[in-house]
C-alpha cells in the first residue's frame, strides 16, 4: 500500500491514470501525446505505477498496451472509504466499471493477481480437472494441446458443460489461450470470447494476468468483472494455504 500512495502522490502519474480511465488499453506513444515530457520519463512513471499494481500491461504483437488495474483502489475504498463514505460507493463503483472498459478491438477485461507459488503449480491449478473442481466449482477438461477442445463441466455428476471452446495457444507453464462459448454457440465463432492466462515468475511469487476479450456485450462484461476476482481469489487461497476460501466467493452479495 505504501507503493500505491507514493505512486498517487505524483501529478504526472495521476494524469496517466486519468488518461487510462478515459480510454483503457493505450500504448506508450498514445499516453505521451498530451504529456510534455520525454518517452523515457513517461516510461519511468509507468514503471512506478506498474510496481504499485495500479496498471497492468499486455503485449499484442509489437505493441504493449497499458490498463488501469482497479484492485489497489478497491482495497483503499474498503479500508478507508467504505466505513465513512457509504453514500459515495455507487459513484466509486461506476468509476471502477468505466476504468475496465476498452475499445472493442482490445482486451475488454484484464485482472492481475500475485500468488506465493511457482509457475508450474499455477499452471497445474489452471489445467488440472480435479484442482479446478476444488476452487472453481467446475472441472476444466482437456489435453490442453493447441487445437484441442476443452469443457467447463459441472461437478454435480451431471456431466453438463456450461462453457466449451478450443485451445488456441498452450505454452506450459507461462501462457494459455482458450476460446469460450456457450455449448449451443460452439459452431458460431463470431460469438466466442477469448481468455488468455499469462504466468510470470518473480523470485518466490507468480504474477498471474487474466485477459478476457471479445465479449458480446456489457452484460457479459459485468459477469466476468465479478466472476474472475472470485475465482482467482479462491485459486490463490488454495495454492497459498492448501484450502479454498471458507465460503464460495462468487456467492457473496455485491451489496
From TrEMBL:
Protein name: Metalloregulator ArsR/SmtB family transcription factor
InterPro entries found in the cross-reference section: ArsR-like_HTH, ASHA1/2-like_C, HTH_ArsR_DNA-bd_dom, START-like_dom_sf, WH-like_DNA-bd_sf, WH_DNA-bd_sf
UniProt cross-references to CDD domains, sorted A to Z: HTH_ARSR (cd00090), SRPBCC_CalC_Aha1-like_GntR-HTH (cd08893)
Domain (HTH arsR-type) ranges: 1-88
GO molecular function, one term: DNA-binding transcription factor activity
One Pfam family here: HTH_20
Family: Belongs to the AHA1 family.
PANTHER family per the UniProt record, alphabetical: TRANSCRIPTIONAL REGULATORY PROTEIN
Source species, domain of life: Bacteria
